[in-house]
Design goal:
GO terms for molecular function: 2 iron, 2 sulfur cluster binding; metal ion binding. With 100 residues, the chain is mainly beta. It is built from no helices and 11 strands. A 4-stranded antiparallel beta sheet has the order 2-3-4-9, with no helix packed on it. The N and C termini lie close together (6 Å).
């Protein structure tokens, strides 16, 4: 199922929170206009990743500085030990869609 997460007006290297029911997602745009979707909370301590620093294809958790790869969800820097779930994202008609 594809979900409409809103307008594709994210600045490069920016994130946005998107809530659907009880679930929280994070939508990111990298420096090359790629769009990515992940679970919205850090796997270490449930902090919202949309507030983290986005650099190229990574996001850094704003609380304990774990770094996650936006393409794969893999942890690149601890203290997080568990990878993020990622979801396909696309831009269509000026809106960002994610497949969950």
């Amino acid at each position: 199922m594809w979900l409409d997460t809103g307008p594709a007006d994210l600045a490069p290297e920016e994130g946005r929170r998107f809530d659907q029911g009880a679930r929280t997602f994070a939508i990111f745009r990298n420096h090359e206009d790629g769009y990515f979707a992940t679970d919205g909370l850090c796997t270490h301590e449930d902090v919202h990743l949309c507030d983290g620093l986005v650099v190229e294809n990574t996001v850094e958790c704003p609380k304990h500085s774990s770094i996650f790869n936006l393409q794969t969800g893999e942890v690149e820097t601890p203290p997080a030990c568990n990878n993020l779930r990622t979801y396909p994202a696309k831009v269509e008609a000026g809106r960002i869609w994610i497949e969950v």
